[in-house]
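Entry 14. Ran structure prediction on the chain below.
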Amino acid sequence: MTQETDSTTGTAGTTGTEFTVERVLAEAAHILAEPTGDIDPAENLFDRGMDSVRMMSLMERWRAAGAEVEFADLAEEPTIQAWVTLLNR
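Output, structure tokens:
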């Protein structure tokens, strides 16, 4: 995997299709403007301020990295743990 800078956010991201808890947590924390250490991977991200616009942004980023994921699947169980499972199937 390589590092690249996301032109829309100016943040570094990992390219490739391996979606680890650390990667998904970092991307979700960034979009929520929260420290990664403050988010429990089992926590419902809607309780942290995740909304449909932010979730769509993450979904598009992950699709660009090769994930085959649908918005409804992410919304059904909005936790880092569930998303990692979805992204790696």
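The longest strand covers residues 3-5. Will compare against last week's run tomorrow.
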